[in-house]
Structure formats: C-alpha cells, structure tokens
Design a protein that fits this description.
about 15% strand, seven-stranded antiparallel sheet, about 220 residues, about 45% helix, globular, alpha+beta, single chain, 7 strands, C8orf32 fold
C-alpha cells in the first residue's frame, strides 16, 4: 500500500454540495440498496456478490437497532471488524490495476477483495451507519513497523483523550493502541476533521484527501443508481 498524499482535486464547493445532499432526509442510507444498484451488482459481480450485500445489510440493520437500544459500542465494533476481516486481502495493483485505489464497501464486497484502506473505510462507514458518532472514529494512517510500510487502520475513541481501540486486518483482535507497539501513528481523519501526530486538529481538513473525495463521489453515484 502506498501512503496517500494530500492533493487538490474536485473543487471544495462540489464536495460541500455532495455532503449537503447526502444529509437530506430523502437520501438513502448506506445499505438501502436501490433496485438499480442491485441490478448493477448482479450484472458486474454475479449473484454471490448480492448475497454478500444481503449479509452486510442485515448486519448493519441488526446492529443499528441494538445500538439504538443502548448496547455498548464494543459489541458493534467486534461484529463489524470480524465481518470485513473475512474478505481476502488483495493488493490494489492486482485487484484494481492501480497503485492506490479506495473502494466503496459495495466494490469491496462485490470484488470480494481489498487492502488495508478498504477494510478501514468499510468498517468506518458501517459503524457510522450503525449509529456510532463519527467523533469517536478515525481512519488512521500508521507505519506498520514489522512490515516496514505504510498501513491503514480504524481507531475508536471512547472519549477524545482515550487510548483508542484499533480495528485492523493484520491483527483481528481489537486491542488498545498502547498494545499495538508494531504500529506508529502518522495521521487520522473522519468526515469532519484531521489529526496529525504531534500537531493540532484541523477542522474540515479531510477534504484535502483526494482519494477520500473520490470515494465520496463513488458513494453518491451508488446512491443514485
């Protein structure tokens, strides 16, 4: 996996309009698949892919109800982490013929493959849809010291200054960051903010991540099918 660079792409106003549209009451949820999207998935990846989408859909809906009923976040973290870690690891050049490609969860489950970014993004979006507040979630770039390469994980913060729990495809057990001495943090972000290690919090800086903007555009396209 190559480390993503912060670059300019779509005008910020376009992204702002996209995020505003996705917040409208009539906008479908992450797993509210339209007939057009179901047909697209069937045509592109076959009936087995739609079966995987159905499992994901039930998982999110069931855990959404449980979270709304007051169940601790930890249960949802475990279910979502285990579900996506079942997807085989495949490098971007082999799967997408690209050096660095951030797939939507639909693409990841459709192809039934992904790399560290795809696992982290799918977990983040699913947990957000389940009802876990985004201020508790950060998609985080780290340095995997044993591998000697950049890596991505999802971090969950019970409180802003808590030792975060790490959801990772390299280690399926959810552990506090203090126990993951094999990972060196670089920066993290969610829909609203970016945090740089040793630096300050940057409001709205996630919009500077080109591949994140591209991902949001693909999510919007899936919603419109």
């Amino acid at each position: 996996m190559r480390r993503n660079t912060l670059a300019k792409s779509l005008p910020i106003i376009v992204l702002a309009m996209l995020l505003w549209a996705m917040a409208l009451p009539g906008w479908a949820g992450l797993i509210d698949f339209s007939n057009g999207l179901v047909a697209y998935i069937e045509k592109k990846w076959g009936s087995e892919a739609n079966g995987r989408m159905g499992v994901w859909q039930r998982l999110v809906r069931n855990n959404k109800a449980a979270t709304a009923g007051g169940r601790p976040d930890s249960a949802g973290l475990k279910v979502v982490n285990n579900f996506f870690n079942q997807v085989p690891y495949v490098r971007d050049p082999d799967l997408w013929r690209a050096d660095d490609y951030w797939a939507t969860p639909v693409e990841m489950l459709g192809m039934f493959g992904g790399d560290c970014e795809d696992y982290s993004i799918a977990k983040y979006l699913s947990l957000k849809d389940i009802g876990i507040p985004i201020e508790k979630l950060r998609i985080s770039y780290v340095r995997a010291l044993k591998l000697g390469e950049s890596h991505m994980v999802l971090a969950y913060y019970e409180t802003p200054d808590a030792d975060p729990l790490i959801l990772d495809n390299l280690d399926g057990t959810i552990r506090p960051a203090s126990q993951r001495t094999d990972l060196e943090p670089v920066y993290g972000f969610n829909d609203d903010d970016m945090w740089v290690v040793g630096g300050s919090r940057h409001k709205g800086a996630a919009t500077n991540v080109r591949l994140w903007r591209d991902l949001l555009a693909k999510l919007a396209k899936e919603q419109q099918m």
